């Protein structure tokens, strides 16, 4: 179980799996169609059944990998990876205050509004990677 910490239910099957990054992968933006109501971010290809409010200010890109993340439900680890095709589109919406390559973006423009990024997921992701690295070293 240590090597395969997650379970993937598929019909009557129980598949124990591990992942290279996060167990949650955001796959679709669901437009709310309302300027007041937030859009939703669907994960694991489940549409509205598995979705969280899209929080543009909390989107985070790790400069080391170029991967882009968004908050996920706490019970799934609190952070999810944004699938590559969406990440490519999102990468065009970032603005960088610093020209240093190792600094994350500072702004994200979503539907014409520019958000200052909190980058709060950077610390969470780095601490999780440190724990994983420490476990692998044992």
The tally of beta strands, per DSSP, is 11
Return Rg in Å. 16 Å
Order of helices and strands: EEEEEEEEHEEEH
Indicate the percent of residues in helices: 10-25%
Largest sheet report: 6 strands, mixed
Structural class of the secondary structure composition?
A: alpha+beta
Uncertain spans: 130-138
Beta content? 25-35%
- The order of strands across the largest sheet is 5-4-3-8-7-6
What multimeric state do the chains show?
single chain
Q: What distance separates the N and C termini?
A: 16 Å
On the 0 to 100 scale, the average pLDDT is: 86
Tally of separate helices:
2
What coarse outline follows from CA principal-axis ratios?
globular
What does this structure look like?
With 138 residues, the protein is an alpha+beta fold. The protein has a 6-stranded mixed sheet. Strands 9-10-11 form a 3-stranded antiparallel sheet, with no helix packed on it. A hairpin with a 6-residue loop joins strand 6 and strand 7. The longest helix has 18 residues.
Write the topology of this structure.
Layout: E1 6-10, E2 13-17, E3 25-30, E4 40-43, E5 51-53, E6 60-61, E7 68-71, E8 79-82, H1 84-91, E9 94-95, E10 107-110, E11 113-116, H2 120-137
Parallel strand pairs: 3-8
Antiparallel strand pairs: 1-2, 3-4, 4-5, 6-7, 7-8, 9-10, 10-11
